[in-house]
Specification:
The protein is of the alpha+beta class. The chain has 37 helices and 34 strands. It folds into four domains: 159 residues, no CATH class; 337 residues, no CATH class; 179 residues, Rossmann fold (3-Layer(aba) Sandwich); 240 residues, Alpha-Beta Complex (Adenine-n6-DNA-methyltransferase TaqI, Chain A, domain 2). About 4% of the residues have low confidence.
């Protein structure tokens, strides 16, 4: 008797699976697709908890396996495909629907699982056997599973794929190969006459952004140069092997056998492919090959390059792996690890975060994007840009997210046409480093490497001593000449490029500081790679001119000017020098540049230093966002030790998603705050977390979002709150909503409902001066004082062993003597008794202010001067209250986690008691005297001791502070509950 058609069995299997997986899942059989007139794409597709699975079924084992692998290679599925083998003998007598369903229900399904081009059935089975009480069985590499267990099986697959990252083994292999190459090359170069010139040539190709051949190059550790060289050749070879057959070119393996020399093989192959195109990719690679000829006498070095060619031939067989940004993972993991060890890290976005950010931004509702995402014309007209594209991680994540939109909405999938449109029309990338452009080009090309391309819109715009500012050149013109020089080839081509407006800009701009680090004779850090002073001067002047131009243009906008005038000026939150955008760092001009090139209702998705939402120098950016954008999401990480979203940095970072409005249109929508408790560790978790969060945006109170091992808190803040705190948004991210309410109440002059007679110090009619400690740091101190056993004192440290008493112990200070009468005048003018550290760690400092009975200078703490000693004692007592500490922790400028800076403007905006009220001053000064000699534990220990009932010093202090400033009777029992609640909430953010 004839077997039932496979398509028929697929339909009934889909029905059974649908009933077992529930309403939250979608199961689509291929037969349904064909009835709707669509082209066949799969046997069964399952959307289960936000993840797509494809099932390929057949009576033939090999056909089922081959089809499952092919679906991954074709890009029809990003995650998992499952081969299903129907045992023919089971279906011999099954002809009716009831009979077919009975076979499927009563007999185990025979399955194999594939992801990223690999069969993971064996290791998955071991995982399942450890995890589950009922052990699945396996015969011949196939897993046998009852259909009613299929939902649990899919959940286990996802958990396994996340836990056992299949890329990890490959990454370790590549890391070993890089280390072997670096070791061999260094051994050959040791004591060699060519070492200096060899490394200098590599440096020019990889890290010098300048065009001139005789330009001085920055110092880069030898291991970093060599690791980048190897990875660049690995990337170029991978792309070459992926496309060579398509263009009728011989593989590198064939060329190696012909030339018997790996460098000659690469040179011939890369030169031939350049005649087709791919200039951005093979230009740099050829330059590296040319330099490495100096090491051709080393058998060890040549052996590592022969091994590279052999290894690449294995990599390219797994097309599904190449689509997973495998090259990008290698680039960041291997070169990043080496660079970090050698202190030369370049910051690039973590791949899971890139996936999360791209999906969050592209899948969030946008009326202007209500396009037909199944139509290729939509993608042709949808333009994406990264003005600091680096290795292309963000652009690759965007490509994948847009491809997902296309797959979900298209009746027929034409991946070749989609790829050409994405690379030739839609995606644009710019970078100042040529090897970064090469990496980005490879990463994007490998999504569909066999598709011929006429062009790629990835461009190298140098930052060099001529005054070229890289992508920032685009501020002054949207067309420019790009000099593209092929290393080792006597040819230079120039191309005029018209840069369009974009629908979506995704970017992790450079964070370089524009302030000097403080050492004598130091200069701003932004152009560290520039060696000559003349070159630096030229670049710095051009940069200053660009920043001034940007500032002037923004302040001509009425909406921004209104915000500026509200917060900046004498007697206001900021002084003009506080908000000088020249001090903000390189991220600021890139954001303003992106604003110029973004279409109305387009989106920006940004990876930024956390200082953008809190530093006074970035105030102009916040004014721009607050006046002309819907600030849709602010994303931070509170995961201990993992506050960053980029590789190779410990800096705290933030993600912003913004939608641009038309000129004159006012923002009205609320903002979602997303706090990662555990960041996603791989791309699948990043994808699922974005989808999970989007499902929870219903305006309800704080919600937990969990996707596999990653967790986040999500809550909403009002548009009014965004506007009210435009001077510092970190309060909205660093504090739980309950503490945000507490700070808002504090700003209104109240504490737990009690009238606390609070105001800003600038609003009081008293003498008040804050002296920045930088005034007495390094050369500035030496200008006026000798560091010897003199008559004056200076405080040079403010750690936990210094800031542990309200009354400063003068043994923590050092003696200095004045050099002149002018020095005595300077001391008398600026020395202070009330000291507030400029840099503070809230997880270890006991206090945040200390008082000295005699005036002193400090190179580490702000010196505060008021009319009287008692006012200074009163302010010292207040600043060390939990009420003021919560405010300062919320608003201080974060460097990393609980470490950051307290600036003068933080102090000027701090709500304080009325220091013109004699009663309040007197009672607060009495509180100071009562506690001045107490030795305090670090802040977290203080709060833990109260919560655990061990020591109530902190609680007694805060009660005394509140009693001193309020004229309202206090219910101490109620106050105790309020304080304990406050301590618990505050402890969460300072531990």
């Amino acid at each position: 008797m004839a077997l039932p058609q496979e398509d028929t069995v697929n339909v009934y299997l889909a029905e059974i699976l649908s009933s077992h997986l529930g309403e939250s899942s979608v199961v689509i059989p291929e037969e349904k697709v064909r009835r709707q007139g669509k082209r066949r794409k799969f046997d069964i597709k399952i959307e289960f908890k936000g993840i797509e699975f494809i099932l390929e079924a057949s009576y033939n084992e090999k056909d089922a396996e081959a089809d499952a692998i092919r679906r991954l290679e074709e890009g029809l599925i990003d995650t998992v495909s499952i081969a299903v083998h129907y045992l023919p003998e089971l279906f011999n007598n099954a002809q009716t629907p009831a009979q077919i369903k009975r076979v499927l229900i009563q007999n185990p399904l025979k399955l194999k699982v594939f992801t990223q081009g690999r069969d993971i059935s064996g290791t998955l089975l071991e995982f399942l056997q450890q995890k589950r009480e009922k052990k699945p069985r396996s015969i011949g590499g196939w897993i046998y599973l009852d259909v009613n267990e299929f939902g649990t099986f899919l959940e286990s697959i996802v958990e396994f794929v996340v836990k056992e990252d299949v890329l990890e083994d490959l990454l370790k292999q590549v890391e070993e190969k890089v280390n072997t190459f670096v070791s061999a090359a260094l051994a050959e170069l040791e004591n060699s006459k060519i070492k200096e010139s060899f490394l200098k040539d590599l440096n020019k190709i990889l890290f010098s952004p300048a065009k001139e051949e005789d330009i001085e190059v920055p110092e880069v550790p030898d291991e970093v140069l060599l690791s980048h060289a190897y990875i660049s050749l690995l990337m170029a070879s991978t792309l070459y092997e992926s496309v060579s057959k398509k263009h009728g070119l011989r593989s590198l393996q064939v060329l190696l056998r012909k030339e018997e020399h790996p460098l000659l093989a690469m040179k011939e192959g890369f030169t031939e492919i350049l005649k087709v195109d791919y200039e951005n990719v093979f230009d740099v690679a050829l330059g590296i090959v040319g330099v490495l000829f100096d090491l051709q006498s080393s058998n060890r070095v040549m052996a590592t390059l022969e091994d590279l060619i052999e290894y690449v031939s294995k990599i390219v067989r797994n097309k599904a792996l190449l689509r997973q940004d495998f090259i990008g993972h290698i680039y960041h993991k291997v070169t990043g690890d080496i660079a970090t060890r050698k202190g030369y890290a370049t910051f690039y976005t973590k791949a899971p975060i890139a996936t999360f950010l791209a999906n969050l931004a592209l899948y969030s509702p946008n009326d202007a994007w209500e396009n037909n995402w199944g139509d290729l014309i939509t993608f042709k007209n949808f333009r994406v840009c990264d003005f600091a594209c680096g290795s292309g991680t963000l652009l690759s994540a965007t490509y994948s997210s847009l491809l997902s939109k296309y797959r979900k909405n298209s009746e027929e999938i034409f991946l070749d046409q989609f790829h050409k449109i994405m690379i030739e029309n839609s995606i644009w990338g710019f970078d100042a480093l040529e090897h970064a452009v090469q990496t980005a080009s490879v990463v994007l090309s490998l999504h569909e490497p066999e598709i011929p391309l006429k062009k790629m819109n990835t461009y190298h715009i140098p930052v060099d001593e001529s005054g070229s500012l890289g992508s920032l050149n685009l501020w002054n013109a949207n067309s420019f000449l790009l000099p593209l020089k092929r290393r080792s080839i006597d040819k230079t081509s120039k191309e005029t490029v018209w840069v369009p407006k974009f629908d979506f800009i995704i970017m992790n701009p450079p964070f370089s500081r524009t302030t000097a680090p403080g050492e004598e004779g130091s200069r701003p850090r932004i152009f560290d790679f520039v060696v000559s002073e003349e070159g630096f001067r030229r670049l710095w002047e051009r940069y200053r001119e660009t920043i001034n131009n940007m500032e002037n243009e923004l302040l001509r906008r009425d909406s921004i000017r209104a915000i500026y005038n509200t917060y900046v000026g004498q007697g206001k939150v900021f002084l003009p020098q506080n908000v000088n955008p020249l001090n903000a760092g390189a991220a600021l001009p890139f954001i303003i540049l992106a604003d110029r090139y973004l279409k109305p209702y387009g989106r920006m998705a940004l990876v930024l230093p956390k200082t953008v939402i809190e530093s006074s120098a970035f105030f102009l950016v916040r004014a721009l966002i607050s006046s002309g954008y819907e600030l849709e999401y602010i994303v931070v990480s509170t995961e201990p030790g993992n506050y960053n979203f980029s590789y190779s940095t410990q800096l705290s970072e933030v993600l912003l998603v913004l939608k641009k409005l038309k000129k004159g249109e006012k923002p009205v929508k609320d903002t979602y705050i997303i706090k990662f408790l555990k960041q996603p560790k791989n791309n699948l978790e990043g994808l699922l977390m974005a989808r999970t969060i989007l499902d929870k945006l219903d305006g309800s109170p704080i919600k937990k979002a969990k996707a596999l091992n990653s967790e986040a808190e999500v809550y909403k803040v009002s548009r009014k709150t965004i506007e009210d705190f435009v001077w510092n948004w970190s309060i909205l991210t660093d504090l739980p909503p309950s503490l945000v309410e507490f700070i808002s109440e504090l700003l209104s002059g109240k504490i737990f409902g009690y009238n606390a007679n609070l105001t800003r110090i600038l609003d009081l009619d008293i003498e008040f001066r804050v002296t920045n400690p930088r005034k007495f740091r390094g050369a500035n101190l030496k200008k006026y004082f000798e560091e010897d056993d003199g008559q004056f004192r200076i405080l040079k440290r403010t750690g936990k062993n210094v800031m542990n008493k309200l009354g400063l112990d003068l043994s923590s200070t050092e003696k200095i003597s004045p050099k002149s009468g002018e020095s005595i005048r300077v001391f008398r003018e600026y020395a202070g008794r009330l000291l507030i550290p400029e840099a503070v760690r809230f997880n270890s400092t006991p206090l945040v202010a200390s008082f000295s009975e005699t005036p002193i200078l400090s190179s580490r703490a702000h010196m505060i001067t008021l009319n009287t000693k008692d006012q200074e004692k009163a302010l010292c007592a207040w600043i060390n209250s939990t009420f003021a500490i919560a405010y300062l922790r919320a608003l201080f400028t974060t460097v990393e986690g609980n470490f950051g800076h307290i600036y003068g403007w933080h102090i000027r905006t701090l709500p304080i008691p009325d220091l013109t009220n004699e009663r309040i001053v007197k009672t607060l000064a009495q509180v100071f005297e009562k506690y001045k000699n107490k030795i305090w534990k670090p802040l977290p220990k203080q709060y833990e001791s109260v919560i655990n009932g061990e020591d109530n010093l902190r609680e007694r202090y805060d009660v005394d502070i509140l009693k001193a400033i309020t004229d309202t009777p206090i219910d101490e029992e109620s106050l105790e509950i309020d304080l304990l609640t406050l301590y618990v909430e505050l402890l969460r953010i300072i531990q």
